[in-house]
Amino acid sequence: MQSFDDDQGRHWQAALLEASFGNVMLIFSRIGGEGVLHKTLDTANYGEAEQWLAGSDDAALRALLAEAKPWG
């Protein structure tokens, strides 16, 4: 799990979710906010996604957050 701030200074957490057919999703939840967003990652497997998340910076997370869709 990674914590980061968006361009408006709101605090978010990004976590991985192993989905069906080997897909991995990045789940975004805002601290003190409602709703959850998700974005499918373009990684080969969960292990690769873990490495990507561990090495990602706030700018990379903000870029994926901008593409994320509401959960449900």
Description:
The structure is a single chain. Helix content is 28%, strand content 36%. The protein is α+β, with helices and mostly antiparallel strands and 72 residues long. It has one domain (2-70). The chain has a five-stranded antiparallel beta sheet. The two termini are 21 Å apart.
- Backbone structural class: alpha+beta
The parts where pLDDT drops under 50 for at least 5 residues are: none
> What oligomeric state do the depicted chains represent?
single chain
Specify Rg, calculated over alpha carbons: 12 Å
H/E topology pattern = EEEEHHE
Taking the alpha carbons of the first and last residues, their distance comes to: 21 Å
Count, helices:
2
What's the arrangement of strands in the largest beta sheet?
1-2-3-4-5
Proportion of beta-strand residues: 35-45%
Helix content: 25-40%
- Mean pLDDT, all residues: 94
Q: Largest sheet, described in full?
A: 5 strands, antiparallel
What is the number of domains? 1
Q: Would you count the extended β strands for me?
A: 5
Shape: globular
SSE diagram, text form:
Elements: E1 2-5, E2 11-18, E3 24-30, E4 36-40, H1 46-55, H2 58-67, E5 69-70
Antiparallel strand pairs: 1-2, 2-3, 3-4, 4-5
In short, what is this structure?
The chain is an alpha+beta fold and 72 residues long. It is built from two helices and five strands; from the N terminus they run E-E-E-E-H-H-E.
Tags for this model:
72 residues; alpha+beta; 5-stranded antiparallel sheet; 5 strands; 28% helix; 36% strand; globular
